[in-house]
Amino acid sequence: MATPASTVAGTRVVKIGDASLEVPSFVSASNVGTSAPRKKHFRQRAHCNPLNDGYYYAPVGPWEIDWREHYEEFFAKRDGDGDAGSLKIRFADVGCGFGGMLVRLAEVFPEKLMLGMEIRDKVSEYVRERCAALRKDHPGKYWNISCVRANAMKNLPQYFEKGQLEKLFFLFPDPHFKAANHRRRIVTTTLLAEYAYVLAEGGILYTITDVEELGKWMSDHMSAHPMFERVPEAELTKDPVVPLLYTGTEEGQKVERNSGSTFLNVFRRVANPNH
Ligand SMILES: C[S@@+](CC[C@H](N)C(=O)[O-])C[C@H]1O[C@@H](n2cnc3c(N)ncnc32)[C@H](O)[C@@H]1O
């Protein structure tokens, strides 16, 4: 287990055995949640290569992260009830962008802890600033959402234990159009095995895209995977999450504004057939 060695605004140093490692703090030194962040201050190139091995912090395992720092008031409340020890993140939004879906989900599921994972550091910083500002403006609310800078294609099992998640979101993922770049796509047979690992039995994997070919790609890969089965439409119409998939995110809103088509694929993590 890592122990905090010192705290400065924007970063924190953890001790792992004898080594010291600088890790990002919940909010950055630039704003510290004093006002709603503005996107123009957090702009970054739209695309990055998820197969690059650039250096950035990733935990050895979920125990290394001080989750209290992310969800302070939520934990403090449960401390009073004596059940903070069992708290775990249950929803993850992979490639959360500017965090629109997390904010909507926080309102619908105030008792669930949720984490956005975003590979672009400035964008992940924006989301943490957004959470901090929302908490300030709405006392007692939005303490259940946060965001980390992470490459989910490489580090997902380092953030979550086996079977921890109830919902996993891939909303308007990067399409990586060229055939040579298809291996950069976030839904592949290999990665689906990781998603099955972090999802609880019965957990739901939500995907939506405005790129028809990518929608088919995700549908084909998930349909062919032994750990997933399609959620029937009748069930989807009763799921309060589904309407949010279309308009909850910044990309979804863009598609709506342009009256574009969307391709939804929702799958359930089934029981392990070998057990
Ligand atoms: C097209 S945007 C969609 C953002 C958001 N889901 C929405 O619907 O508005 C895709 C996002 O995924 C992020 N991303 C791409 N690959 C990723 C990876 N391997 N791990 C985490 N985030 C990733 C990108 O930086 C980008 O913000």
Structure description:
The N terminus is likely disordered. This protein has 275 residues and is of the alpha/beta class. The chain has a single domain, classed as 3-Layer(aba) Sandwich (Rossmann fold). The strands form two sheets. Strands 6-5-4-7-8-10-9 form a seven-stranded mixed beta sheet, with helices on both faces. The chain contains ten helices and ten strands. It starts with a strand and ends in a 6-residue tail after the last strand. The longest helix is centred in the middle third of the chain and has 17 residues. Strand 2 and strand 3 form a beta hairpin. The structure holds S-adenosylmethionine (SAM). The site of S-adenosylmethionine (SAM) has 24 residues, from strand 5, helix 5 and helix 10.
SSE map:
Blueprint: E1 3-8, E2 11-16, E3 19-24, H1 67-70, H2 72-81, E4 89-94, H3 100-108, E5 113-118, H4 121-137, E6 145-149, H5 152-159, E7 165-171, H6 189-198, E8 199-209, H7 212-224, E9 228-230, H8 233-236, H9 242-247, H10 250-257, E10 263-269
Parallel strand pairs: 4-5, 4-7, 5-6, 7-8
Antiparallel strand pairs: 1-2, 2-3, 8-10, 9-10
Bound molecules: S-adenosylmethionine.
Active site: 174
Function: Catalyzes the formation of N(7)-methylguanine at position 46 (m7G46) in tRNA.
Keywords: Methyltransferase, Nucleus, RNA-binding, S-adenosyl-L-methionine, Transferase, tRNA processing, tRNA-binding
Features:
binds S-adenosylmethionine; globular; disordered N terminus
